Amino acid sequence: MTTSPLHSLDIRLLRYFSVVAEENNMSRAAQRLFMSQPPLSRHIRQLEERLGVTLFVRHTRGLTLTEDGQRVLEIVRPLLALQDKTWTALSQIAKTGEQSLRLGLSTAFEQGVFAALESQLATRVQKLHIVRHGSPELARQVRRGKLDAALVALPLENSGLSVTPLGWQESMSAALPTLWPEAALPSLSLTSLNHRPLFWFKRERNPAFFDYTRHIFRRAGYSPALIEEPMEHDVLLARIAQGDGLSLVPASFSAIQRQGVIFLPLTDTELRLGMGLATLPENVTKVEWLQTVVTQSLTISS
Predict the structure, then answer these.
(1) 0.85 cut: is pTM over it?
(2) In the chain, which residue ranges form alpha helices assigned H by DSSP?
(3) Taking a C-beta distance cutoff of 8 angstroms, is the pair 75, 18 a contact?
(4) Whose CB among 107, 151, 154, 291 lies 3.0–4.6 Å from 34's, allowing a Cys bridge?
């Protein structure tokens, strides 16, 4: 057994460092990791303190790896790759056929995204119970023990949960009435829609995602008049079709055919919807196999 003071180093710090090194920008790295910038900065400082080296030179344009930082990156990359390979190998020999699984699937995504996953789980899990709901409600059910795990949209308030980002991101599209002149364009900018009303949710429904989008809206100069968004997607699309307003939805929703509604890509926004696997901290080891199955099925779906 090693007696090194680093033997208890949280490997998540190394993964955070690797992402920051790839982006050379703390803000972009934080968005990619679906976390705010201050805690990410604290994690990097914590790693520097544990290693006793300076990993980055900070400047107004972002970050630059130091020589020590480059050495650390070269050392940890094989470790992180081995970790991913190890989880994949273990999941392949895990006996999951007799497991029961209560899984939540977020309705923030078009449900066809999960088709391959549901097919795989049907052959691997003896007792499968799937619940479809908004991400905040799924998070509540996981906290209460009603679900073993849930695939949720990120960012999301995750207190009391272990949430693992899955690397799946969707850009957002504008869903707008075909009767509007903008419907004839190949793509849209957010600012070109400033004069149009936007169906949007109240902050209390999903504070983390609301704050994330508000930050991006401000950076883009987008400040539309907001209309309360209907809870049901079919009602929302009906309201859009009759010209009451537009909505911003994940790109996967463009697979939906709805008369009077067109989905157009946005050209000038960082707005993304990520996916994460949420479970209780004490259940993390029980659903590790699920993370690999989900990742593989999302690759198939894409």
Answers:
(1) no
(2) 11-23, 26-32, 37-51, 67-93, 115-124, 135-143, 207-220, 233-241, 288-301
(3) no
(4) 154
